[in-house]
Structures are given as C-alpha cells and as structure tokens.
Amino acid sequence: MTGCRESPAFREPQRSHLRTCPQPIARGSRLKLSIENVGKCYGGEFWALRRFSLELKPGVLGLLGPNGAGKTTLMSILATITRASEGKVTWNGANLAADPNALRAVLGYLPQDFGVYPNLNAQEFLEYLAAVKGLDAAAARRRIDQLLNLVNLSDVRGRPLGEFSGGMKQRVGIAQALLNDPQLLIVDEPTAGLDPEERVRFRNLLSDLSGERIIILSTHIVSDVEATATDIALISSGALVAHAAPEELLRKVEGRIWEWVIPSADLNAVKQCYRVSNAVRRSDGVHVRVLTKDPPAGAQPVPPTLEDAYLDSLSVYRAGAVA
Amino acid sequence: MRRTRVLWHLIKADFLTRVRRTSFLLTLGFAVFLGYQTFAGHIVMRLDDYRGVYNSAWVGALMGVVTSTFLTLAGFYIVKGSILRDETTRVGQILAATPMTKSFYTLAKFLGNFAVLAAMVLVMAAAALCMQMFRAEDRTLHLWTLLSPLVLYALPAMAFVAALAVLFETLPLLRGGLGNVVWFFLWITLIAVAVEPAATRGAPLTQANYFRDFTGMPTMMGQMRATLLQVDPKFQNGFSLSIGGTPPKHRFVWNGVQWDPVQLAARLTWCAYALAAALLASIFFHRFDPARESLARRPKQATPERAPVLEFAAARQLAQADPWTNRLDPLPSSSVKNRFFSVVAAELRLMLQGHRWWWYAVAAGLFIACLAAPLDASRGGIILAAWIWPILVWSQMGSRESRYATGPLIFSAPYALQRQLPAVWIAGVLVTLAAGGGLAIRLLIARDLHGLAGFAVAACFIPSLALALGVLSGGSKFFEALYTVWWYTGAAHHLRGADFTGTVAASSTPLIYLGMTLVLLAICFTRRRTQLAYA
Fold first, then answer.
1. Are A238 and A53 in contact (CB under 8 A)?
2. ipTM surpassing 0.85, yes or no?
C-alpha cells in the first residue's frame, strides 16, 4: 500500500526545550517597533491606511479588523514589501526607510498570499530561502530539520511542493517564516487553510514563541487572537480603533452582554431592537446574545468574549465616524 | 439564443479583462509602431528595384502583408495565456462548475483572442488610411481596395493564430515555454510552405497555392509581378518584404488584388481551420481539473488523503494531549551572514532543478559535440543548438518570483537587490558558459582569442537579456519569443551585428554586445529597484 495521506498536523514544540535565543529576555527586552502616523495611499486617492500609530514591544499583537480594514497593507509596510506614503516606521530606533536591511535580517514574514516553486520539494525550497536570507549551510540544514519536524512535514520533505495541499503549503510558509529565528514575526491570516487541529497547534506555537520577540498576528478570526494575543489592535477603514490588552477590552463590555431564549419568529424583532452578537438555534428556541446597557426582559448577564468586545468597539467607532 | 448569450458574455468578459490592462495599450502601441515603420518607409515591399505608387491598392496590400506576417508572429505571443489567466485567478474553477461545455469555452477563448488581434488590425487599417493621405502620391481613396487585404488576408490569418494560441494552451507539452519556441518555427513553416519553389522564380500560382497561403503575400506577389511585367519586360521576378535597406528607385502603378471565388474560398478555409483548431482544443482542455492543471510532472503518488476535520473542541483536546517531542534550537547569530555564493549556488540549483533526465543528456551531448566536432562546425552550427537548448532555463530569470508569487518571501529578505538579483545573473552566466563550454575549450586550444572574447560576451549577454526582459515583463514569454526570433534571424544566419554568439569572426561584434549587456544590466537593476519598496 503506497497511497499517501495528508501528513499529520503540527507537532507541538516541547515547551521545556523551546529555546530560540541564548538570552531571550535580554534580547526581547530591547526590541521596539514604532509606527508613527503611517499612511498608505493607492492610486493617488484611496487611503488604505491613515495616521496609524502604534508602539510594539515583545509579545503577540493581534491585529483585528473587518475585510478591507488595512491589515494587509500595514503588514506589507512592516515587512518592507511596500513603502508607506506618509509617516515613519522605526525598528529599535532605526528608520525603516533609511535601513530596511536591519529589519529584514531579523524578520520572519508569512504573507496572506504566497506561492512556492512547484518543482522543488519542501527541503529544497527552505534551503533556497535560507540561502536568500543569508543563513550558512550547516545551520540552515539543522534549522530546516527542526522546522520540518515542528510543522510535521518531515515525512513528505522529498515530495514536490506542487503536490502539496493548501494546508501543507501553509505549513511550509510557517516554516520559512521561522527560518532565521526572527525577532519580528509577521503572520498575515496564518491559519487560513489549516484544519482545526492545526489551528490550535499553530496558536500554541505562537504563544510559545512570543516571549522574546514581537509577533504580529493579523486575522479576522477572533478566536485565534483570543488564544494567543497579549495585546490587541482593532483597525477599521485604515484607522486604529483601539489598542489595549484583551482584559481591558473585555472590561469595557462587562455587564453589557445578555443572553436569553426566544421563539424563532421573534428573532427579526429582537435584531431591530438590539445589537445581536450571536444567535444559535436550539431545540428550545433561539439563544440570543446581545450587547446592551439595559437588560432585556428575561435575559441573563453572561461573561463577555473578545468577539463581543470587538463588535462593540467597531460599532462605537462606526457610529462616531457617521456622526 | 441562450447559448449565444453565454458565448457573448464569455467573449465580452475575456476581452474587457484584457483591454483594461496596461499590456493591451502596449499591444496597440506595438501595432502603431509597426504601422509607423511602414508609413515611414522602414518596412519596404519591393519587386527588384520597384515599388508601387502609394495608392489605396499598394498601401492596403503593404499593410495587409505586414499585418499578416509580422503581427501574426507577435500576435500569438500576445494572446497566448488566456486559459492560464483563468487558472491562476481561479475564475476557471468557477466556470468549470457551470454547465458550460468545453467546446464552448475554447470557442469563447478563441473569439476573445481574435477580438484582441482584430483590434490590432483596426489600428493597422487606420495607419493605412493615414499613410495614403500623408504620403500623398495618390490621394484617391478606394476604401474597399485599401481595406480588403486587411479584411481578407490579415483577419483570417489572425483568426488562425487566435485559435492556435488556444490549442497550444490546452496541450500540456506546448502550454509553456516550449510552445513559444515551437510557434516561431511553425510560423516560418507556414510562410515557407505557402510558396512553391517554382512560384518564387515567377511561375504562375496554382489554386493549391491559394489554399496554402497563410499570409496572402504570395497571392498578391503573383498579381503584382504580372502587372510589373507589363510595365517592364526585363523584370527579374525579385520580390521582398524587408526592414530597412535602400528604398527602390522606380515606381509602378498597381491597382489592387483581383479577387476570384477560389481566392475567397481559400481565405474562408483559413477561418474554417481556425474553427477546427479551437474545437480540437476542447478535446485536450483540462476544464480546470487540478489534477491536470499546471503540473509538468504528474504526482507519483495518489492524491493525499485529507486529515479528518475535527470539531474545534476535539481539536483543542487533541492538540493539548499530543506529546511535545520537537524542539527548535536557538539559531546562533554567527550563522546569519552575507553569504553571496550560497545564494548563487541556490539560484543555480533552482534553475537546473526539475528537468527530465533527457534534458541533461541532450545538454551534455551538445557540450561533447562542441568539444569533439571540427572547430568550424562547433562555432558555426553546434553552438547554436547548445545556446537554444537552455532557453526555458534562461526565460525563468527575473520573472520566477512573480510567476510563482514568491516575491513577498524573497523581497522581504535582506539585500534582495544587492544579493539575489546578481546571484540570478551569475547563475545564468554559469549555465550559458556550461552549455557552450565545449566550444570555449576548443577556442582556447586553438588560441582564438577573438572568438573566445566573443564567446565570453555572449555568455554574459544572453542571461542579461533574459533577466532584463523577465524583470521588465514579469513573465517568460517576452524573452522566449524575442530570443527565438533573434537566434534564428541573427545568430543562425550569422548576420553581422545581429549574431550575438560572437564566435564567427565575420559576423562577430563583441564590443556592441558588451555595451548592450551593460545597458541590459542597468535596466534590470533600475527596474527591480523600483519594484522593491526599499532597495
């Protein structure tokens, strides 16, 4: 029986052995990425990002926002792929525009859309990128072995990438982002194409890596951020809506989330009266979750989730923008 | 009625997709350029030392011939790629899920291609009108006489090219760069078989000639000769369509093609060939089946079985319960350095990886043949084969990153401009040196320093041309087309100035090619610099 199977998902790194630099705390403590009034204009009229400022220190920043909010544009600017139309980005005090290579040398980047060379296998592709990133051959080989194990592709390392499934290619992408043991890791929609098990493992991997480096995780999947982020930045229409720790965002909506059961027929009426964050049909009726100050009749207060906080911040921002 | 509507929308969407791209403007620009070259007298149709007076008939014939020869060659490269575009944009998968038949799709692609080529013919028609008016040798306008060569010769030829482009795209072997090279030789063959040797010496054309006549040039040539013989009985039957050269001294009046039913039937036959080619393409069309799409090599193993999709809670439990057995050691900072030659080696490996064993065998055979054959045979003939064989390797240079969407991964690495781009170029030079290495050894043994210098310059020039065109166009087609034409017209015919191989003293101009190499390198560095946010 020679039929191949999808290789198993990520293997969790052994946390006790997950060392990524000799003096993680010392290195991590001096890392700082500053984004000052950054804007990006496309075609001379459309601003995908405007007056965006943020200061990042080691940890995982979850960048949340609806489609078209400007997340990928921000990622591309930070990854030195595109230049900001205005404003300044500095890495440990050095201006990105003046010396982009200082950042590139310590950057790991997983773009939202990327390709692979279909005739190369995973090992060869990573060897190629290791050379481009300036890694010496012996260190690259060791690192690639570990990374292929980590993303659980070592069994299929000899297979052409053209035969890989979408999830397997995504794992190759994750491996390449970690090749140079980056101090700044930028991952744009990293869990796209991964199955639930792989997603959980990838989140754990991010948490484990986060201590001594800056990780920027861009996604619109709130649960991915909930599990890993030490900081959250909400972005909408190219502007920063909120930047806070998850706990702080949750505190803002505490006591304003209510849940109760209604007949299906009443759902539309409830939607017109309240901001519904979730509605699940069960055998006893529709379980409705709403964001409101005043409790609806018969509703019970429930602990807020990050999704509630996210929806609340966005609607407050949009209401303010309209006003 | 419904089918016609579907076909119309398929063609419309395809046409609009193309005309809204900058490359379409370049396409029209090329037609304008060709029209201007003809107008300015740089492209000349002559019979011995005669040309026709610029009346509607001669101008129409000239534009018709230029369009059906030069524009058919370039037009193929311009329109080929429409199925690939549907594949890469994933629109194809949406279309494949509709009730649309394969023959409908290939027919629509053919008509979409034809619409683009017809737009170019329209530009040439406008150029013809301007030419007659501004040349002002005979301003009497006979619209049908002026336009009929474009309508009846150029358009059927364009239709055939449009269909062949679709057919090539559906054939796995011809879908890529090999198809681009094969088209050039097929185009030469199409032009060559149209004229019997006797006809080139002035014998009257037979009806069979009409049906073999792809461009319409031999048919018009026959009628022009007959007219000129009445004007000048000493006419020697010479006929040429040339770029540059001295203008003819004498003029004669020609009143246009005398159409007969056989000629019209012959032109309709080319339209029928086009339709047949488009329908034939539907047999080979993969209908965007991922198992049959772009992979040159089919998977050796069965399609991977999908891992079971778990409910999230179960996945979380499994992920947490899994033993953590892997480790990621720290990467010593000393292991990250500016290692230029590692990048060269990596690029070289990337270039040479993925070919079949016979590709290397032929390359090795050509190397040995260059080494073992008599020196004159090596430098006059075998080197030409050795320097066309790696064309698909060179054509990837500079465009691989955009073709495979690996740009964000590579251009976010440090010193992408200063390290990766020169590494690609050096790898290309090494491939060129290795391909023709047998000749270099022979020249060295023969102490032919001039030949050796020409060889070295050529080894730098070819990859520079490939890299520059790859970086500029973001694709491989431009180089594959231009290099094949240049190789055939310049190098294979040892045309002085156009022979870039530089190994034959009579046609070698190494200094010119050295200068061109430097200009090309400057172009690709400048262009890549603008492509990168930060150099």
1. no
2. no
